[in-house]
Amino acid sequence: MIYNIADLRIDIRNQYPYTTRFCAAYLSDDQQTAVDIVATATAEELQKEKMQSPNFPDGYIENICLYRNICLQLPPFNRMLLHAAVLEYNGNAYAFLGRSGTGKSTHTGLWLQAFKGAKIVNGDKPILQINDDGVIAYGTPWMGKEGRGSNTKAPLKGLCFLEQAKENSIRRLSPAEVASKLFLQLLLPTEENAATKTLELADRLINAVPAWLLKCDISEAAVQCSFEEMTKQSFAEAKGRGL
Amino acid sequence: MKIKKGFVVRTVGGECVAVPVGEMSKNFHGMINLNGTAEFLWNFYSEEHSLDEGVAALLNEYDVDESLARADVERFMGILLKNGFAE
Fold this sequence. Notes:
The complex is a heterodimer of chains A (about 240) and B (about 90). Chain A has two domains: about 1-75, no CATH class; about 80-240, Rossmann fold, CATH 3.40.50. In chain A, about 35% of the residues lie in helices and about 25% in strands. Chain A contains eight helices and twelve strands. Chain A has helices at about 20, 45-50, 60-70, 105-115, 175-180, 190-210, 220-230, 235-240, and strands at about 1-5, 10, 35-40, 80, 85-90, 90-95, 120, 125-130, 135-140, 155-165, 170, 210-215. Chain B has one domain. Chain B has helices at about 25, 35-45, 50-60, 65-80; strands at about 5-10, 15-20, 30-35. In chain B, a hairpin with a 2-residue loop joins strand 1 and strand 2 (about 15-20). In chain B, helix 3 (about 50-60) crosses helix 4. The chains are: A alpha+beta (about 240), B alpha+beta (about 90). The interface between A and B is medium-sized, with 22 and 16 residues.
């Protein structure tokens, strides 16, 4: 079946029904016209993934392999996978990044509590389209075990790397600092052309979107810290307006 | 000696990195950060050159004394040889 994901036409050739249900919200009305990407999972890939997650059903295993297959084919389309929680506020997207367990879900959850207008684009594995004139973050069917996200897109206006701390503080990161942190959150292809393109996209991303390091606890004060720095708006005013 | 094929070298966020691809990526998961001198030597040793040639090239490029240049080349290529990135 053909799906529209990240403004690409993707033919996903799954053997198990799991992925058909999983991607239903992204199904294309047009099942005829040429596609950009054909996604398949080879027996070898399935076997390898199965070894890592032996207790999961085959459809689930295939689903993971298919997304990896899609993501490895994205670079020629100026797109790549980013491991991050991305939320949308006031028409703009903000990405929150960090190693597993640093509180991406918690921090973005606090944003949703503070602002009615905020929503999750993708809680775990969004796709970015990176052009010279800006970066777009896309929701995809794959959005982590919590399944937070929607079929939407928004221009990405900030990268916010999270670290747990007792006191809240935020500072801009230099391009070199961003590079070293960003590499941990990318899927680097091992095929030469795709790898080269991914590094080029990462460089473009670093130049196009400002990045911060947020040291934070679990509180509304932490949200105030990231909100004010990234949106340049007053937290109290925005919250007072009920947005 | 020369650096083996199987790396993509790019500048990301102003920092030069070498990333393994193809066969090389099966044995080495990660990336190598290259500072200015390292980037220069990496490019130089993408072709077969002796230790002395590397030292001469470095002296030609940078304002350093020979013992320091030699130590740099020995250390850099030593790391690459030890890890199987050069031969």
